Amino acid sequence: NDLEKRYYLCEKLIMIEDFTNAIHELLEIVKRNPNWENKKASKKAVELFNSLGNDNTFVSESRKKLSKIMF
Hints:
mainly alpha, 77% helix, single chain
């Protein structure tokens, strides 16, 4: 499944601290299927946003993108 592969890639990107690309992958998953695996991708994105902090410009922009996709 493409979404599973993307999520797996996301986890690997987080391990190597490539948070920008990890967030891109999560947003793509949410865009394709917002409810995939009980909203696993959006929950992971929010978790990542919280760990990176709101002072991060990329996080702020990505939160907005996630909101637009979800609502």
